[in-house]
Amino acid sequence: MSDSTDLSELHWLLAIVQSIDVGVVVLDREYRIDVWNTFMENRSGRLPEEARQKSFFELFPEVDEQWFRRKVENVATLGTPSFTIWEQRPYLLRFKNYQPITGLEDFMYQNTTLMPLKGLSGRIEQICLIIYDVTDVATNRRQLQAANQELQRLSSTDRLTGLFNRGHWEEMLRQDYARHCRYERNAALVMFDIDHFKKINDTYGHQAGDAVIQQTAELIRQCMRDADISGRYGGEEFVVLLPDTDCEGAMTFAERLRLTIEAHEVVYEGHSIRFTVSLGIADLSQPTSGYPQLIERADSALYMSKSAGRNRVTVYR
């Protein structure tokens, strides 16, 4: 092959390197920059003459130098490429994201490739760093994950109150019961409903009833611990699962909740609405055939509270 052909091919290669929409940086073995393509110029704001022969780490102080040196030395020693993906490391070089469609992200997500480059001697004398802009892919993936999480949240929560719906809290109860069977851990279930709720609806309207239910849910959240699981059983009836809690602890929680609700005032369209709740408790200290029986026992204790005059706590015996 003639020298003119070699020069022509080199010219083509340089033109391709300059025009492709990926970053190309060639480093010598002292981590000085030999090649700096147009992508790098545009994204970094540095001209090739400003970058060439400069230390890579001086130009990009955000790079974890110890980690990057280890990656490069492995490539040079093994003579094989190495890759990073945005899921593991969102970016190598912190470039701003200028894409209008994916403007939700401040920086460019990147995949990178490190390639060994052999000189005429056959030794690896340079390392080529290739940077791919994958912001679109990363943003779409993150938005999809967020949408899936929101769908999961909506499928497990009650729309009116934001508490867990019956299907979800029953599954949590089933899991807690399985832990009880395996590790003999205790748990208590508090079930309660709003006293004379039909009268509230009839007197003030269903929207006022909804406000009462929503504020009851908020009071539950204020009284419960982070580990507790609260849910809406249906209508004006609620449940709170108290993991690692005995009957006495459940009584303390239930009485505190009862008093908090009794003292609360719902103001709706100029009307002051006060109400009370009746509560029933069952725990796993007594032999139980399964978690559905715990629900039945808490419901039975709730019925006893209502039969005894409402606005009280009853424990299933």
UniProtKB/TrEMBL annotation:
<keyword id="KW-0808">Transferase</keyword>
<keyword id="KW-0418">Kinase</keyword>
<dbReference type="GO" id="GO:1902201">
    <property type="term" value="P:negative regulation of bacterial-type flagellum-dependent cell motility"/>
</dbReference>
<dbReference type="InterPro" id="IPR035965">
    <property type="entry name" value="PAS-like_dom_sf"/>
</dbReference>
<dbReference type="GO" id="GO:0043709">
    <property type="term" value="P:cell adhesion involved in single-species biofilm formation"/>
</dbReference>
<dbReference type="InterPro" id="IPR050469">
    <property type="entry name" value="Diguanylate_Cyclase"/>
</dbReference>
<dbReference type="GO" id="GO:0016301">
    <property type="term" value="F:kinase activity"/>
</dbReference>
<dbReference type="InterPro" id="IPR029787">
    <property type="entry name" value="Nucleotide_cyclase"/>
</dbReference>
<dbReference type="InterPro" id="IPR000160">
    <property type="entry name" value="GGDEF_dom"/>
</dbReference>
<feature type="domain" description="GGDEF">
    <location>
        <begin position="185"/>
        <end position="317"/>
    </location>
</feature>
<dbReference type="Pfam" id="PF00990">
    <property type="entry name" value="GGDEF"/>
</dbReference>
<dbReference type="GO" id="GO:0005886">
    <property type="term" value="C:plasma membrane"/>
</dbReference>
<dbReference type="GO" id="GO:0052621">
    <property type="term" value="F:diguanylate cyclase activity"/>
</dbReference>
<dbReference type="Pfam" id="PF08448">
    <property type="entry name" value="PAS_4"/>
</dbReference>
<protein>
    <recommendedName>
        <fullName>diguanylate cyclase</fullName>
        <ecNumber>2.7.7.65</ecNumber>
    </recommendedName>
</protein>
<dbReference type="InterPro" id="IPR000014">
    <property type="entry name" value="PAS"/>
</dbReference>
<dbReference type="InterPro" id="IPR013656">
    <property type="entry name" value="PAS_4"/>
</dbReference>
<dbReference type="InterPro" id="IPR043128">
    <property type="entry name" value="Rev_trsase/Diguanyl_cyclase"/>
</dbReference>
